[in-house]
Design goal:
The structure holds 2 protein chains of 2 kinds. Chain A is elongated, with a radius of gyration of 19 Å. Chain A is mainly α. The longest helix of chain A is centred in the first third of the chain and has 29 residues, at 41-69. The model of chain A has no long low-confidence stretch (mean pLDDT 88). A two-stranded antiparallel ribbon of chain A has the order 1-2. Chain A contains 6 helices and 2 strands, in the order E-H-H-H-H-H-H-E. Chain A has one domain (3-195): Fumarate Reductase Cytochrome B subunit (Up-down Bundle). Chain B starts with a helix and ends with a helix. Chain B has 3 domains: 40-243, no CATH class; 307-478, no CATH class; 499-533. Chain B has 16 helices and 17 strands. Chain B has helices spanning 2-24, 53-63, 67-72, 75-78, 107-110, 136-139, 173-178, 185-192, 230-233, 270-273, 281-284, 292-296, 426-429, 432-443, 475-478, 500-532, and strands at 81-82, 89-90, 158-160, 168-170, 236-237, 240-241, 307-312, 327-329, 335-338, 342-347, 353-357, 361-363, 377-378, 380-382, 392-406, 411-412, 452-461. The chains are: A mainly alpha, B alpha+beta.
Chain lengths: 205, 533
């Protein structure tokens, strides 16, 4: 059995930094929202802003990386095996069936993941970014010709996107445990390597 | 050579650091007020003896030919102010406040704080002759000049020894006149600290504790702070003092006051601190909507002097079983009941209430018809809103109480409380019916003959007792579900506001996802165990 590199060093760095920052942003964000008090509002707001800027920098790096390496193709949606994967999560996992999808360097995400991550990248994240930056620069709206915006609406969009993020994270973390063993899908995300199976990996067009 | 260079730069560094440190200290080398070019001790006119205030004023006016005319133009003299926006005629001569009520009909008592002598009938203008202007109340530096509380502005000319009534001490007007000088906080405070009938009673942010304020009480007036006098901010031109409450500049957009360029008044925080006073840009983002005072005066009446927060006139007049007027104090030693004035509540370290304020207040004057179904009645209704760009959130002392009004004609009533000799004044006769009849007759106010008491509230903007920056409010003082701004609901504030339905849906779906995941996990676990078995 040989090991193959699925997740490259930058990709892992990016993923875990992003994960940490998102957890931190959610934690400080819901404090700013008034859901609990840990740091106090002022500190939470300051930390939230700093973490947001850090995440922006990370995203710029990640976008650059995705474009230059062509890795963005990993997120092109497909219907191939989509049904099979969904069936596996609903039924197969209980009956002891094999996961119908095997990650390769060319296609490291199963079709359901592709859809979910694409939604994350093109849906939740941009909404969070745009509403968050608007929120942050509330005082500049008039100068930017955005005086027609209402803080309440921007805040509510940001909150809704934060809830979507929270829900994504819960589902993402749980589904990461649904490999052959609890940690078999998490391990390559840390080490980068996945054990090469005996049979041929599935392909995606 | 190399060592020399290094040494030189080291010395330069030390000098620079020392200069920088010196630069951060206040300019101690210069006295705050420039010494006068005249020694009034040497003036023949001021050698006395003087037997009355007006005599002193005549002597002053021999040199200061325009002083009386200047002063007589100001609200300190006229007690009248026509509001340029609302058109209302305000000023002590006209308004009814929620403390003593009306100055009219109680003249010799209320006009004891007039900057003049002998205004004993407020239906008339103050006496016009220049000698009736009181120079000494604002310019005495000896502390020996005290206005009598009952003499229409005249000072106490003769002090009676409290132990031996045969011993008296005359006020040395000549000595006071020879030692006149620039107006100090003590001069201003001799009236403004005692408004409403006692130390700290009226304003809450103005009381005698400011004269010896530690830095924590007032960074500006404390000797350990900027050591400023009232007049350093309340600048004057031709004896007219800036910074009147009747037309507040609730949002000074001019920033730092530069002589020759701006409005020549320093009676706003921005006049010295500018419009971007914080290092944090997020804090600076607040200044267009939040007055400096809101965060920087966390509480008022912090100097150990209590302020009155409730005054119920309706209980006045109750005598004890011997028919004597009563004085009852609360556990803190503050007045709780006076037969003359009714019931009180006092407060120290009072948290202000907050309102949008554009600088305008509309008063309920004695001619104004009131709606007695809307309680409490607003004695001065504060104008402003989130959508009004001139408005900012300001801190207020709101004075609550009960005052007499005419339930038939629906207006507030002039109450006659003080007189030295008549049988109608409340404070000597304890008879409301007589007091109000006399007051309304004197003021020429229509009166149905019936009176009741109506609950009122009056807004007093809080602007003094600025705390050091480290004692300013925390963000979370307002950005919280139930913070200090909970009452101002016309805008969205992070940390306070939310959509309850969005929150319920968000947390609900997140919880369902979590529960669903756990159920799915449990299913997997059980299925695998069954397969193994």
């Amino acid at each position: 059995m040989k090991r193959i590199m699925i997740y490259k060093r930058f990709e892992r760095f990016w993923h875990w930094c992003q994960a940490g920052l998102i957890f931190f942003l959610m934690f400080t964000g819901f404090e700013i929202h008034g859901s609990y008090e840990v740091f106090s509002f002022g500190t939470a707001a300051k930390l939230h802003e700093l973490a947001a800027y850090a995440l922006i920098v990370l995203w710029i790096l990640a976008i650059f990386w995705h474009i230059t390496t062509g890795e963005w193709r990993q997120y092109i949606p497909t219907t191939d095996k989509l049904g099979a994967v969904a069936y596996y999560y609903l039924i197969g996992t209980f009956t002891g069936a094999e996961h119908p999808y095997r990650a390769t360097t060319q296609a490291k995400h199963n079709p359901l993941q592709r859809l979910a991550y694409l939604g994350f990248k093109l849906g939740i994240s941009p909404v969070i970014w745009i509403s968050g930056l608007l929120y942050l620069f509330y005082n500049q709206w008039a100068d930017w010709g955005l005086g027609w915006l209402s803080l309440e609406n921007v805040a509510l969009v940001h909150t809704a996107a934060a809830f979507a993020m929270l829900i994504f994270v819960i589902a993402h973390v749980y589904m990461a445990t649904m490999g052959k063993t609890v940690f078999s899908m998490i391990k390559p995300m840390i080490t980068g390597y996945e054990d090469e199976p005996e049979e041929k990996p599935s392909k995606i067009k | 050579m190399r060592t020399y260079l290094i040494r030189l730069s080291l010395w330069q560094m030390i000098t620079t650091i020392m200069l920088l440190m010196l630069g951060t200290l206040p300019a101690m080398a210069l006295d705050r007020s420039a010494p006068s070019t005249a020694d009034h001790n040497q003036f023949k006119q001021l050698q006395g003896p003087f037997t009355s205030g007006p005599e002193v004023t005549k002597a002053c006016l021999e040199c200061h030919t325009e002083a009386a005319k200047q002063l007589q133009e100001t609200t300190h003299w006229t007690w009248e102010y026509k509001h340029p926006e609302t058109g209302q005629i305000l000023g002590k001569r006209n308004v009814i406040n929620s403390f003593c009520g009306s100055a009219t009909s109680n003249e010799p008592f209320c006009t004891s704080c007039h900057t003049g002598y002998g205004w004993d009938d407020m239906r008339q203008l103050p006496p016009t002759d220049g000698s009736n202007v009181d120079c000494l109340i604002c310019h005495d530096t000896t502390g020996g000049y005290k206005k009598s509380p009952i003499a229409a502005g005249h000072p106490i000319y003769e002090f009676v020894d409290p132990l031996d009534k045969s011993l008296t001490r005359k006020t040395d007007l000549a000595k006071i006149a020879r030692n006149i000088g620039a107006t100090s906080s003590r001069n201003c405070g001799s009236c403004h600290f005692y408004g409403g009938g006692g130390d700290g009673v009226k304003h809450g942010d103005l009381d005698s504790s400011l004269l010896t304020a530690p830095r924590a009480l007032d960074v500006h007036m404390s000797k350990d702070g900027a050591n400023l006098a009232c007049a350093d901010c309340h600048t004057t031109s031709a004896h007219s003092v800036t910074g009147s409450r009747y037309l507040t500049n609730a949002r000074d957009t001019q920033g730092i006051d530069v002589p020759g360029h701006t409005d020549q008044t320093r009676a706003s925080c921005e006049s010295c601190h500018g419009s971007v006073p914080h290092q944090s840009s997020k804090l600076n983002d607040h200044v267009d909507q939040v007055a400096c005072q809101t965060c920087h005066i966390p509480e008022f009446a912090r100097g150990g002097v209590a302020t009155k927060i409730w005054w119920d006139w309706s209980t006045a007049g109750q005598l004890d079983k011997d028919g004597k007027p009563q004085t009852i104090r609360d556990k803190d030693g503050n007045l709780e009941y006076l037969s003359t004035k009714g019931s009180f509540r006092h407060g120290e370290n009072v948290v202000p209430e907050y309102r949008w304020f554009d600088g305008q207040a509309r008063y309920t004057l004695r001619d104004d018809t009131i709606d007695d179904s809307q309680l409490p009645l607003q004695i001065n209704k504060i104008q402003g809103s989130h959508d009004n760009p001139d408005s900012r959130i300001w801190p207020f002392k709101i004075m609550y109480g009960k005052q007499p009004y005419d339930p038939i004609l629906k207006h507030l009533l002039v109450n006659h409380v003080y007189s030295a000799d008549d049988d109608t004044a409340l404070w000597s006769n304890f008879d409301w019916a007589k007091s109000i009849k006399a007051g309304t007759e004197f003021a020429g106010q229509p009166y149905s003959g019936e009176f009741q008491f109506i609950e009122t509230e009056m807004h007093w903007p809080i602007t003094h007792m600025v705390a050091p920056a480290e004692n300013a409010l925390e963000c979370s003082s307002c950005h919280a579900r139930d913070g200090r701004l909970a009452a101002i609901t016309d805008f969205y504030m992070p940390g306070r506001d939310r959509s309850i339905w969005l929150d319920r849906a968000g947390w609900g779906i997140a919880l369902l996802t979590l529960v669903g995941s756990l159920a799915h996990a449990a299913g997997r676990f059980l299925a695998r165990r069954r397969r193994k078995n």
